[in-house]
Amino acid sequence: MHTHSPTHTSRLALGFTLIEVMIVVAIVAILASVAVPAYTDYIRRGAMQEAFTNLANYRIRLEQYYQDSRRYTAAAASTTCAGAAAAALTAAELGGEAKYFDYSCEPSDSGQAYLVTATGKAGSTAAGYTYTVDERGGKATTEFKGEAVTNVACWALKSASDCS
């Protein structure tokens, strides 16, 4: 017959050692340090889609307005696009939601040109991002992660120079 020694029995009753717990905590910390930034970036890229959709939709509305009026403004000297109430566009005028970005439209050239801008709202995941589109369909990123950028002829999503 086999008997248990007192040291063997007490060791089984102790559970995890401090070293084992520290190893688990270290592994969880390493996983979190990778997962949290990746998740944050994923959420940010989702917010960017609002701007891309609204800019594209509003550009279509402006082109339809131009077909009827032969200008992007109600009158040659107008300071608003497509008969909007103000330069700052509402969600109704955009035809979409405006949760992460503020939108504005600036006409130029006596109503023959425009620049629509989506600027990330302060305090949102889109803060520090600015995208534009013009009457030629020219897309641009002018601010990415709070840094001004130039010569980015696309709506950058993953990095300031990523036009894929």
Brief overview, please?
The protein has 164 residues and is α+β, with helices and mostly antiparallel strands. The protein has 3 helices and 6 strands.
What does this structure look like?
The chain is of the alpha+beta class. The chain has one domain. It contains three helices and six strands; from the N terminus they run H-H-E-H-E-E-E-E-E. Strands 1-2-3-4-5-6 form a six-stranded antiparallel β-sheet. A hairpin with a 4-residue loop joins strand 4 and strand 5. The longest helix is centred in the first third of the chain and has 52 residues. It starts with 5 loop residues before the first helix and ends in a 16-residue tail after the last strand.
Query: Would you tell me the structural class of the helices and strands?
Result: alpha+beta
Which regions are unreliable across 5 or more consecutive residues at pLDDT < 50? none
Order of strands across the widest beta sheet? 1-2-3-4-5-6
| Gap from first CA to last CA | 74 Å
The overall average pLDDT, rounded, is 88
Largest sheet: 6 strands, antiparallel
